Amino acid sequence: MKSDEKAAATKISVIETIIKKYGIYLVLLVMIIISAIISPNFFDSKNLLNIARQISVTTIIAFGQTLLIICGMIDLSSGSVVALSGVLGVSVYMATGSLLFAILVGILIGAVTGIISGFFVTKYKMPPFIVTMAMQLVARGAVYLYTGGQPIYQIGDFKKLGQGSIGFMPIPVFFMILVAVCSWVILNRMRLGRYLYAIGGNEDASRASGIHVGSVKILAFVISGVFAGVAGVLLMGRLNAGLPQAGINYEFDAITAAIIGGTSFTGGIGTAAGTLVGAFIMGILNNILNLMNVQSYVQQILKGVIIVAAVAIDISTKTRKSKPVKM
Amino acid sequence: MEKDFILELDNISKSFPGVRALENVNIRVKKGTVHVIVGENGAGKSTLMKIINGNHQPDTGKIVYKGKEMVMKDTIMTGQIGISMIYQELNFIPELTVAENLFLGREPYVGIKSILNNKQLYKKADELLKKEGLSYSPYTKMKELSVSDIQMLEIVKAVSIDANLIIMDEPTSAITNREVDKLFDKIEKLKEKGVAIIYISHKLNEVFRIADEISVLRDGVIIETRAAADFDHDSIISMMVGRQITNIYPKEKVDIGEVVLKVQELCSGKIFKNVSFEARKGEIVGIAGLMGAGRTELSSAIFGMDSYDSGKIILEGREIKIRSVSDAIKSGIIMLTEDRKKYGLVLKRSIRENISLPNLKQFTRLGWLEIKKELSEVAQKSKELEVKTPGLDIAADSLSGGNQQKVVIAKWLLAKPKVLILDEPTRGIDVGAKFEIYRLMVKMAEQGMTIIMISSELPELIGMSDRIYVMRQGEIAGELPENEFSQESIMRIATGG
């Protein structure tokens, strides 16, 4: 090979490595630039905080999904758990007047649903897809049953959880950052994170390394449930009501954010930062489409196309990687 | 008379990021001959085969097949021009029947290519199986076959396509001696028909039985190609590793101390019964036995991967209960499983994560991982074991078999075992890496570890053990002291003869 050809080849491979490693961040960057061109108000701090507030609920759920998908599982019940924990949080607040208590009840409900799903997944070796699909029905049914299908209005200061701010920071955004940091810590600085990656990568080898696979899986469901519980309370605050029909299909938006952020559906791969970026990509996309007055039906089609495109690009760049093969 | 070349590789080079896999490789394979390629793990054999097979493209160099220069686009194309390959790792779909597997991708159809002709499929498969002397029905599902049956089937499948060149990558790693004979008969017949065979193996005894020519590959370079008769055992080994190995079993006398592990009357249903044995500090205890004698099951029970019904496990004089792998690890009993890819490694994750996986408690303070401490200990262990890798954050996937095995050993040594059970520790790895693993075993024994080695390779058991237990049908059928070691004495007990 001639030396300049070689140099060109290395240059291409350097670019390729950068794209592979930071591809998703580049996509976010491009979207931000496009948004700034389309809408001069984009960089307005109000608009940015607004985007963050809009994505906060699904992003919080997305972190739970990220942990589960890394571990080779999934939670389809998040949307229903959001409704159940949110509504129960509202009624606890109505009874006690304590926001803290309401949040704790939301977390508790999420945790309990997580324990139940985790139990069936580990004890009966049922696929998480099936178990959480059933939990989706059960939790949704429970919240309708509890409310008689009627929304709870006049929830007073509860709405602060969704609409209030701490200083300049909207409360839901504050919780989103908190959950993001927790997820990063779990994945990068705790044993649990390593176990999640290991189990998602190779469950047999994890068991043979002395990991209590069942406990880790249950814990992952509990964390996902807790995140959904927090998300539920925040959502009801934002809606200024306890709506039993809230949160439908939120799990899919959350899963989308995780997948766009590079979490691998086959398990063992994914990061907290990736999911946050994935969520922002979806959020900014919504924002641009709204600013451009794109009809909401068209928006749905576009989103579907973008999901497929993002994952296709992600997979094709990853499989093209000529990793050293066993010799 | 000079025979024609079916395949000529001319100055083939191939690099992967960070690794130069092949450098100016020249190989010529004659029609109707067996060309054996030997080399350590990581020498570049599999890469070379994948280039011939169209799985990889060479960076430079040309491939001449049947006198014509060709670009091997992919495996479909190479299949069509008469190259077929038997992979070391078995490729099959467990839910398919034998017949469906045999004719996968070339099923007979009714009329235009749309409707499967099942009758024809099973008839053809049945004929093929009968012709090759395989006894099972074409309706058997793949998942019901043993590993060795599947391997034989792969061979039959490769042969049934009218190939001119067959590549066999370690075809005997999972089959019995009788089947090896059958395979070699088959190879002879193929040679008569003018079929050329490229044969890769670590088993030098086999190599000499069938090779016409031998090429030695080391670090991506062909060191030597000669007629098989011009080689001998020792010269091949020293060329493969690039150094003289005087004694392939570096066994040393180690002071043997008190009893560390004592197993009494251990039973598990029909799998093993009343197993009693003991192992001492610094001792290497071999466990021999035929396939299915219950060796792996016994050690899995001691390691907490399987359960046992009754009996006692006594470690350093205290009875311990082992209900899970983590119980065993806590007590200091560790097992290196035989199936490295299934139980040993999380291939997607990095070397660092793999080595620290069972040891994370050591690196945790107040629930927080101490990454620096982890890094330094993992780096130290991998340096100690000479794991060859460009970095510790590389996926375990990208290492060669021998290096992967070293990563597994590093991971378990970090757990500071008192008793280390090695189940087939050198399966599928080459001479050089084997030697290193033997050396490690001696070193570990010197440090006072108790080592229990399960192996199907009798020379290895004899060469490395201080004492050998022989299992037969789930029971300990005999115990041999060092002065009674011989392949015959072990086989006599193992077979009950």
TrEMBL record, chain A:
InterPro entries: ABC_transp_permease (IPR001851). The chain crosses the membrane at residues 22-43, 55-78, 98-121, 128-146, 166-187, 216-237, 257-285. It is found in: Cell membrane. GO terms for cellular component: plasma membrane. GO terms for molecular function: transmembrane transporter activity. It comes from the Bacteria. This is Inositol transport system permease protein. It comes from Ruminiclostridium sufflavum DSM 19573.
UniProtKB/TrEMBL annotation, chain B:
The keyword Transmembrane does not apply. The keyword Transport applies. Its main location: membrane. Keywords: ATP-binding, Cell membrane, Membrane, Nucleotide-binding, Repeat, Sugar transport, Translocase, Transport. GO terms for cellular component: plasma membrane. InterPro entries: AAA+_ATPase (IPR003593), ABC_carbohydrate_import_ATPase (IPR050107), ABC_transporter-like_ATP-bd (IPR003439), ABC_transporter-like_CS (IPR017871), P-loop_NTPase (IPR027417). It is a peripheral membrane protein. GO terms for molecular function: ATP binding; ATP hydrolysis activity. Pfam families: ABC_tran (PF00005). GO terms for biological process: monosaccharide transmembrane transport. Residues 7-244, 254-493 form the ABC transporter domain. It is found in: Cell inner membrane; Cell membrane. This is Inositol transport system ATP-binding protein. It comes from Ruminiclostridium sufflavum DSM 19573. The lineage of its organism: Bacteria, Bacillati, Bacillota, Clostridia, Eubacteriales.
